[in-house]
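stage 2 :: seqdesign
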């Protein structure tokens, strides 16, 4: 094997890993004063990792004897991950400076980089052990990020809950991996696929169930969603925005690769699990969000609801289904990051964060531009045309219909109407209720620009990108088949 070729294929992870280690040393010697430089350098490293995808890292094939896959599917997912990670770093300094009373510590961007490196390994894994190593690297950094505000009891509680339940999910996944290995004789995806194609095996079926249960926790699909609302509410808002976007993309892409490449011959078996998780996530995410008064908890249930729609595309198990998953994730990342950037602007006159939905009352009168952006994100999350969220839902339903899953498409469509209620409630509060005390003015050009960019992307203006985005997602999906 040519190790130089393999290293070129893993260049994005090398850039992130070496960059994180270098910045860790800078943070150790520079202390608090180095935070700004470390943060912007971390964003530059993420951009460099994205640029390094051009070439062998996106089309090289297999590296290290098949342990790592460098293909268009992984490259597409990594671009979304790096964008979400960069936004999470950019939105952090102002939040921590006003909330904790001191500036952001330089370890924050380093943890984001390490988490992004783990997520890159997850989406490029060609072996169950590679997958698990990447998953643990991502998770260990995420546990620290959730409890980053050490003096805040909610943040500490969020980190502890995430750690305990994450450890349980990792154990379930590892048990499933051991069963698959025991009955297939390999941890390589192609050899596992051969074992599933050889005929029915009760041991392999149990392994499949445990593996998908572990993956369901990582994407917060029902019934493994219990950690999501508490962690999203307790974690610092920039961290919550990160959790709701980048790890979701990585875990969903990882699940797609396992389902298609490793367990493709057992599609009829895992499809039943995916359909149940999809419908349960759509319905619970819609119903449970109705009674929420905290905007971050509402967005947590919204993420569960959206995961259900993504799983509808995966249930199809076709090229069109995988392409619809990637398209939905692209739109979802823009909607979610935009929504959390708006939440970041919710501060009272003293500069303290406010998270109640009631505090948005009359926002259209006090901050009309901010209200308009939130309106776009809420209606897009609800799937109302002509916003891009509608196209995303349409894509996954079309994939399900194309695969003959008519009942799934019909139930998913009907349940999406229920979910529209709580999004429209936020719009009603902003535009029709009596104004609440005005939020503190934010003069950050960067945050305002990011909100505007996300809003424009999911607005009807984004339709100009439908054709090229559709071609990219289809090409990425074909690389799996």
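stage 2 :: out
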């Amino acid at each position: 094997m040519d190790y130089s070729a393999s290293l070129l294929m893993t260049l994005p992870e090398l850039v992130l890993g070496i960059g994180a280690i270098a910045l860790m040393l800078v943070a150790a010697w520079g202390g608090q004063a180095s935070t700004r430089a470390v943060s912007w350098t971390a964003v530059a490293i993420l951009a460099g990792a994205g640029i390094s995808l051009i070439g062998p890292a996106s089309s090289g094939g297999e590296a290290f004897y098949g342990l790592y896959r460098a293909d268009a599917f992984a490259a597409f997912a990594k671009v979304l991950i790096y964008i979400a990670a960069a936004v999470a770093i950019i939105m952090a300094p102002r939040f921590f400076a006003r909330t904790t009373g001191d500036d952001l510590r330089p370890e924050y961007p380093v943890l984001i980089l390490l988490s992004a490196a783990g997520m890159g390994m997850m989406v490029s894994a060609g072996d169950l052990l590679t997958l698990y190593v990447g998953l643990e690297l991502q998770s260990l950094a995420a546990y620290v990020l959730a409890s980053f505000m050490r003096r805040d009891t909610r943040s500490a509680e969020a980190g502890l809950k995430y750690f305990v339940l994450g450890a349980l999910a990792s154990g379930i996944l590892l048990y499933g991996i051991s069963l698959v290995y025991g009955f297939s004789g390999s941890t390589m995806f192609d050899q596992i696929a051969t074992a599933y194609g050889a005929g029915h095996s009760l041991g392999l079926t149990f392994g499949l169930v445990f593996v998908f249960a572990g993956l369901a926790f990582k994407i917060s699909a029902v019934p493994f969603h219990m950690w999501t609302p508490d962690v999203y509410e307790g974690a610092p808002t920039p961290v919550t925005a990160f959790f709701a976007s980048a790890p979701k993309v990585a875990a969903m892409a990882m699940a797609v690769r396992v389902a298609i490449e490793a367990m493709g011959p057992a599609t009829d078996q895992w499809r039943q699990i995916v359909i149940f998780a999809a419908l349960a996530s759509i319905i619970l995410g819609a119903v449970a969000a109705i009674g929420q008064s905290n905007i971050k908890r509402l967005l947590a249930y919204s993420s569960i609801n959206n995961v259900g729609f993504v799983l509808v595309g995966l249930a199809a198990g076709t090229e069109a289904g995988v392409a619809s998953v990637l398209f939905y994730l692209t739109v979802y990342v823009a909607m979610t990051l935009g929504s959390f950037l708006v939440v970041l602007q919710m501060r009272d006159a003293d500069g303290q964060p406010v998270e109640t939905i009631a505090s948005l009352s009359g926002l259209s009168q006090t901050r009309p531009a901010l209200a308009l952006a939130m309106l776009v994100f809420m209606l897009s999350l609800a799937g109302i045309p002509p916003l891009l969220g509608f196209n995303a839902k349409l894509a996954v339903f079309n994939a399900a219909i194309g695969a003959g899953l008519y009942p799934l498409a019909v139930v998913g469509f009907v349940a999406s109407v229920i979910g529209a209620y709580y999004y429209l409630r936020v719009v009603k509060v902003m535009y029709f209720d009596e104004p609440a005390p005005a939020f503190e003015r934010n003069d950050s050009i960067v945050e305002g620009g990011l909100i505007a960019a996300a809003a424009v992307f999911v607005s009807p203006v984004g339709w100009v990108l439908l054709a090229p985005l559709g071609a990219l997602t289809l090409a990425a999906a074909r690389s799996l088949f």
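stage 3 :: structure notes
- The longest strand covers residues 61-63.
- The chain has a mean pLDDT of 88.
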